[in-house]
Amino acid sequence: MTTTRLPLFPLNTVLFPGLVLPLNVFEARYRALMRDLLDLPEDGPRPFGVVAIRDGHEVAPSAIGLPEPDAPLPEAGPGAGFAADPMDSFHGVGCIADASTIRPRASSAAAVLAEEGEPEAAADGYEVLATGTTRFRLLSVESSGPYLTAEVETLPEDPGEGAGALASGVLRAFRGYQKELAGANERTLASGQELPEDPSVVSYLVAAATVMYTSDKQRLLQAKDTATRLAEELKILRRETTLISRLPSVPGAEYTLRPTSMN
Asked: In this structure, how many other beta carbons lie within 10 angstroms of the beta carbon of residue 183?
């Protein structure tokens, strides 16, 4: 395991290794982060850390789940909306994201600034496409710059005992879950698609595609090994499939869509 410092992008969602994360970036602190990533070599990685928010909110300091009702919160700057110690606002395990696409969304002044050789300075936002790569443990968070940065320790992906057999069982359960969720006559995520065989990939794909609370997804992300994650997913899928089968009015097809995270 190695430690490194990364720009930090807190979200109200959990990113898993191998999964794609689309972002619509509009806040000043995260625009600054994207400008710095654009300064990195285009043919190299552009990494940043994604952590799920425990307390606080990405935009406004008025969301449910703030640390304490009377606790002072930063009103502006990199720590806006989070606890005085941002570590208290985030879950302890996150995922490194590699931004493969960072597309500036130009403001009305874009043409002028572009002529002056500063196209990025005109951007009032960015459309970003990133992919999760490696899990990390959050060691510390720094808020002295234009955006949060974090010292992180990368985590290995241990297979654990019986991961292969568990993956097969999870895939079968996942197909049944998707059939119940979308309805017997609806096209599901599983139908017509070749699902992966690698147990680790299966564990993350299923964790991302299954409808559950952020806290449950977080628990799966920080599982000690692949087998543990798969075993927990098997329980969740069986439970959820049974519940959905008893609630035919659930608009499950809508839950199979993953919206762009508006940040």
From this structure: 15
Q: Kindly state whether residues 85 and 213 are assigned to the same domain.
A: no
Residue 138 sits in the same domain as residue 14: yes
DSSP calls for 159-199? --TTHHHHHHHHHHHHHHHHHHHH-TTS--SSTTS-----H
Q: How many domains does the chain have?
A: 2
Q: How far apart are CA 4 and CA 201, in angstroms?
A: 24
At 129-174, the pLDDT tens digits run: 999 999 999 999 999 999 999 999 999 999 999 999 999 999 999 9
Reduced to 3 states, what is the DSSP secondary structure of residue 142? Answer: strand
- Same domain, yes or no, for 171 and 140? no
Same domain, 37 and 67: yes
| Residues 176, 111 share a domain | no
Same domain? 168 vs 150: no
CB 63 within 8 A of CB 81: yes
Report how far residue 35's alpha carbon sits from residue 139's, in angstroms, rounded to the nearest whole number: 25
Surface-to-core class of residue 51, CB atoms within 10 Å of its CB (0-12 exposed, 13-18 middle, 19+ buried): buried
What is the domain extent for residue 212?
A: 163-261
pLDDT grade, residue 181 (50/70/90)?
confident
Secondary structure of 9-32 in HEC code, one letter for each residue:
EEECCCCCCCCEEEEEECCHHHHH
Among the candidates 154, 180, 205, a domain finishes at 154
> Residue 209: which of 196, 223, 222 has the closest Cα?
196
- Tokens 């999760």 belong to 132
